[in-house]
């Protein structure tokens, strides 16, 4: 060993490493090797992955501070969409983990999109080692700040249930079924909170310490359906470089949430039924099934009974997934919950952007109550997030919410709708002999809300 080599060796030994765990994900072994050589001199633990399918598995088994994430994995696809998708999965699963995107020169615009989706920074390949170290050190500090903030922050309610009878019924059923392993089918329009309810069931179950794996079946095309859900063996197809577990295996001992199950084509429904029925999965390229212990929750905005009648959905699959059926009502049927829901979402978005207290002005509150909310809770969340970004003087206006674009026809229908509401309330009251409690429950209103409407329309016994 030369004097210089001896000196470097001692220098490296004396260098104090930062107590941090870094995960590098790239399908090129030379990138993984090079990054590990640079980072291991400065940080305590370095993990590498050449297959992005194993990200959630690695995150669940380790406290990862920083992820260095490549943006492209499949041959012939260089638009960075995989990277954006994986970034969102990481930030959902582990919000305090900092993510740095790795991208080739000329793909900077995709990396910038990644910053908007939650990445802390990006670095171009091939990188300068000093630049890499600087970015990773900053990312470690940011991750520590986020973890500290999360530990100190008062625990906020993760779920908003509401007071309308329909939503109370849905969550009451969810709580009862959560302690069992019964398969659950959640029905409801787009944006009504099917993912949130599925997560609520998981969090209130005996499996809550195990993985909760969400699969959007509507976004899986036929070509990748089986490999994504069931996994594959090395060599099973051209790009199968490693043995890879599917989403069912990643959910082992936990819960798998199969969203938009109504969109699965008939020929693939049979394969899904076999897995659910046999409680086992066989990877592509293998013959031996692997046993599963997984709670299955499904969801759709499609009328599956009608699809069964039309022979578009297998009847046997329908009954397999539908041990318990829970219907989530649209937001327009929960009028009394619109303002409380908006306040709940506003609090969460303020926390997300680390903003000072922001409030709705009275006109905004009034317009939100009148708005049809065709996009349900998802529409409300998007409008409020936009408003938080745009508002001035920490006050959200109708313009910030973009509610002043409600069609004139909708506004002109207000009088007609009022007549319908008055007539409906009168009929229900008469039917129940003016029993306020029964009438309020049937109308999906609180007693106080019903009294206010009776006063508004001058309805008395």
From TrEMBL:
The modification 4-aspartylphosphate is found at residue 70. Residues 21-140 form the Response regulatory domain. The keyword Phosphoprotein applies. Pfam families: AAA_lid_14, HTH_8, Response_reg, Sigma54_activat. Keywords: ATP-binding, DNA-binding, Nucleotide-binding, Phosphoprotein, Transcription, Transcription regulation. PROSITE patterns: RESPONSE_REGULATORY, SIGMA54_INTERACT_2, SIGMA54_INTERACT_4. Residues 160-389 form the Sigma-54 factor interaction domain. Signal peptide: none annotated. One of its GO terms (molecular function) is ATP binding. GO terms for biological process: phosphorelay signal transduction system; regulation of DNA-templated transcription. This is DNA-binding NtrC family response regulator. It comes from Flavobacterium endophyticum.
